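chain below, 157 aa
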Amino acid sequence: MQKVIELLKAKEMTISTMESCTGGGIVNALTNIPGASDVLKFSAVTYSNEFKIKMGVDSDVIDKYSVYSMETAKEMALNITKFTNSDLGVGITGKLNRADSRNTMGKDNQVFISIYNSNDKSYLDKELLIEPDTRENSKEVIIKEVETLLIDILSRY
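prediction:
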């Protein structure tokens, strides 16, 4: 994430995250880099549907597409960006290595990543199928993918 922090600083941009299955792994990786406080505005770990909705995710989207969907990830990315007035917002949702009896829709080990760019109102979305492994290793795969996507977005400016 060193490159992400450097690019955000150079472009005078800010970032916020709303994470579910990564449990704050993205924000942890960002804050492991000195100077992250210059560009990171806020992060929310919203494991429950209740708190996704409290943070702005439309309950109709969750009801129609499920909490494990690209539509929900996009809502997460958009709403964390609005909530914090950030340039970039990262939304992540998915199932890792366990079934969810309260949210039965969606495939196991399927993760949805959405990054919203408020400057041009665009999304960069990625769906991942994670090989069953430890939760820690699965999170690392997702974090690495988010890092790659962020560098791609920031390199375009």
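The mean pLDDT is 92. Residues 90 and 115 are 5 Å apart (CA to CA).
thats it, cya
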